[in-house]
Amino acid sequence: MGSASSAYRIIYLDVDGRIQKVVFSHCCSPCDIKELFCTAVGLPRSTTFSLLDASGAMVSIDPTMPSNSERSPYKVVPLSGGQLPDKEELFQNVLTQVAEQFSSSVFLNPSFSLSRAFKINELKAEVTNRLAMLEKRVELEGIKVVEIEKCRSDIKKLREEMTSRNSSSCLDDKKLTPHRDVPSYPKYHLSKETIDTLRQPIFDVWQWEPNELCIHDNYRNNPFHNFRHCFCVAQMMYSMIYLCNLQEKFTQIDILILMTAAVCHDLDHPGYNNTYQINARTELAVRYNDISPLENHHCAVAFQIFSQPDCNIFSNFDAEAFKQIRQGTITLILATDMARHGEILDCFKQKLETFDFTNEEHVTCLKMVLIKCCDISNEVRPMEVAEPWVDCLLEEYFMQSDREKAEGLPVAPFMDRDKVTKPTAQIGFIKFVLIPMFETVMKLFPQIEEAMLQPLRESRDRYEELKQIDEAMNEIILPPLPYRYRKRRVRISAWEAKRNE
């Protein structure tokens, strides 16, 4: 028998009931000890086996392994196929062995035992990590195999379908009908009264419920820039086409471009304008180099939708016509960036004196002004339709200004809830943006004066009166009321004015 301090160590092994004795030195490595065991029990050196003590716990093969006696030899258990025991069983055996060695040796040599226990804990953690990595790798490889098989299956089906189509086209000498990818939708039969109302700026969009369309699903639920705003712009465009008799002056493709751009002009609007995108250095601003980031994004989303077979409303157009539609739609959507307002209006004014409907450049400039008119045309509508839109817009402005304050970004005065009022927000916009633009368009189409310009002038006058009332009340009520109360007072004043009519 050897001891922990002797130069040699004697181990007894139980191999199928035969007791074998193995003597080894402390200088032996675990690999040397394993070879000695294999020689003693008559096993090949490449054999994988495990040693179990009398209690069934696994015993590690190293020079410090405890000695035993002939009466309680270690049992040799060869492992078939070189497989390891179950992971849970392996951990249990290792933990049992650690506990036994720790409890039996700590009193003899505490520092040695603690060091050994910590090393075994480190080994356990390393084994656990390696097993986890292997399991993850097997899982990923399994997923790859599934995906590859699915891809192969899809390719096989596609190849078979193409072969089938080619075979049928070879067998059939008849001219094939071009395939249309647009699904068939139920046709809605609108009454004459509805059609006539849609042609007028007085149409009440708040009484209309949106349908579930792909375009609808790609508008966000913002207070202002939502699908209902998109519908407002499209309906006003339809109204201007009818009032200005554009169907007789423009080509059908021009009309299609106008309506498509109106429907798509604010797709996926995030509710924060270009100024915020640029100041906050958002992904959109970086992607489009600070040049109309939102409008460029609206265009990109629109044509991503049209690229889907079920949404491709242009599938029957040839390549040249589609190119014209795409370029025209992009031009109009980009024109809705208010940073370009002065540039676009000045360009249109220069062409008014000699405007020519056969001149492509003149027509493009007019279309850009038309979509701008429709985009900001809420005040053309009756007061009870237009005023809720002001509340929606201010709510969206205040959301942005609150975020800009929180992020330390510049805040526009007309968006600051602590500075803006509804009359001050609208008067300047109507006087210096809306009326001059619609007056310019009226020079080409005098018929819009009564339907569009007159409501704008009335709206300007109404807000100027409300501003005077606010100023008079602010002289009495100090400090100024918060916006939520001002909004309520404006609604009451507007209601009283309408009632007095």
From TrEMBL:
GO biological process terms, semicolon-separated: signal transduction
Occurrences of domain PDEase (ranges): 136-470
Gene3D superfamilies named among the record's database cross-references: 3'5'-cyclic nucleotide phosphodiesterase, catalytic domain
Positions that bind Zn(2+) 2: D266
GO MF annotations, alphabetized: 3',5'-cyclic-GMP phosphodiesterase activity; metal ion binding
Co-factor remark: Binds 2 divalent metal cations per subunit. Site 1 may preferentially bind zinc ions, while site 2 has a preference for magnesium and/or manganese ions.
Catalysis performed (reactions): 3',5'-cyclic GMP + H2O = GMP + H(+)
Keywords on record: cGMP, Hydrolase, Metal-binding
Binding site for AMP: H225, N226, F227, R228, H229, D266, D375, Q426
Reported cofactor(s): a divalent metal cation
Function as written in the Swiss-Prot or TrEMBL entry: Specifically hydrolyzes the second messenger cGMP, which is a key regulator of many important physiological processes. Highly specific: compared to other members of the cyclic nucleotide phosphodiesterase family, has the highest affinity and selectivity for cGMP. Specifically regulates natriuretic-peptide-dependent cGMP signaling in heart, acting as a regulator of cardiac hypertrophy in myocytes and muscle. Does not regulate nitric oxide-dependent cGMP in heart.
Name of the protein: Phosphodiesterase
Organism: Electrophorus voltai
